[in-house]
Amino acid sequence: MNSTVKMSDIAKALNVSTVTVSKALSDKEGVGEELRQKIKDKAQEMGYKISSVSKAMRTGRQNNIGILIAQRFLEEDSYYWSLYQNLLVELSKKGYFGILEIVDAKHEKEMITPRVILENKVDAIIVVGQLKRSYLKHIFTESGEKIMFLDFYDLEIPVSSVIADNYNGGYALTRYLIKQGHQDIVYLGDIQATTSIMDRGMGYFKAMLDYRLNLRTEWYINDRNEEGFLIEPELPKVMPTAFVCNSDLAARKLHKVLLEKGYRVPEDVSLVGFDNFPNDHYQIGITTMEVGRDKLAKSAIKVIDNILNGSNTLEKINLVVKLVEKQSVKAR
Fold first, then answer.
1. For the segment 250-286, what is each residue's pLDDT rounded down to a tens digit?
2. N or C end of the chain: smaller count of CB under 10 Å?
């Protein structure tokens, strides 16, 4: 595809004037619909790119997309830092720019509108991770409803969302452990923190019920404090043979605690995680569910594009996940 194609090249190819091409591509009057479409098709065929400035002048947009992420999800080696980078790549492909604003606890508690919205810096908002429902409703109103949720959803707010298939992923991870001979299995994750963590936990719960395995109340272990930041988990008094962790980062924190307590992975205890978040320097590969950050990002940008093009259709996109076997599970 030639990025140096000019309007004059399109005009020459169709034997029309450059002015006619300009009017057709900017949707101005003075060009018949049939010719307009013919010009647009030829422009696409030749690889013509409308500059971001021209597009902004024509549409009245700034081509900026706000990305809001809670501070509690942006710890070192955070999955969401990586997902943010994927979003920037996909936004750039569509001619958009991403503007990150980190939302702290004070914003949520005091209903402080993000600056990107308050100062009219963006055309739409992507909320990544999850924020408190009351604050989400506030943002929904302040953004003019041009907003979508990534990696979570809220059934009380009419907003499009893109998520991984967390429920079936949690189920498949638990079933995998059961097929490896494990029966005493713990779920690690604060199910009140995000819909993703809850749905993964519900998948675990369903698998345990389906295979008629014992469920202890103490076998749901919290991995976050009251502010939502990750903490080192406390091991249960009755140790299981395996843990289903809500994320790879949570699994690594648990692995550290297990080693400190003298447990070997996978010889004594097996672990599975979620996300397939890479860490080449970590001492053991954790069996996990591949979510595909690039697919999440691509789907999110398609939704944003639809919103900015006037679509009122609520989209609930649920992406398939895939089991990735590594070294953290041993058959019993």
1. 999 999 999 999 999 999 999 999 999 876 667 789 9
2. N
Residue 289 CA to residue 247 CA, distance in Å, equals: 9
Q: Which residue has the tokens 């809001």?
A: 68
pLDDT digits 0-9 by tens, 210-259:
999 988 888 889 999 888 888 889 999 899 999 999 999 999 999 999 99
DSSP conformation letters of 165-176: -HHHHHHHHHHH
- Say which residues have a Cβ less than 8 Å from residue 272's Cβ, sequence separation at least 6: 173, 176, 177, 242, 243, 244, 245, 251, 286, 287, 288, 328, 329
Let me know: does 154 contact 309? Beta carbons within 8 Å. Answer: no
| pLDDT above 70 for 309 | yes
Spatial contact of 252 and 283, defined as CB atoms under 8 Å apart = no
Contact 289, 276 (CB under 8 A): yes
Residue 1 banded pLDDT, cuts 50, 70, 90: very low
Per the structure block, which two tokens stand in for 306?
């639809």
The count of C-alpha atoms lying within 13 angstroms of the C-alpha of 179, restricted to the half-sphere facing its C-beta, is 7
User: What's the half-sphere exposure (Cβ side, CA atoms, 13 Å) at 173?
Assistant: 43
**Domains of the chain: residue spans and CATH:** 7-49 (1.10.260), 64-164+293-319 (3.40.50.2300), 166-291 (3.40.50.2300)
Tokens of 43: 């422009």
Cα angle: 168, vertex 174, 175; to 5 degrees: 85
Is 39 within 8 Å of 31 (Cβ atoms)? yes
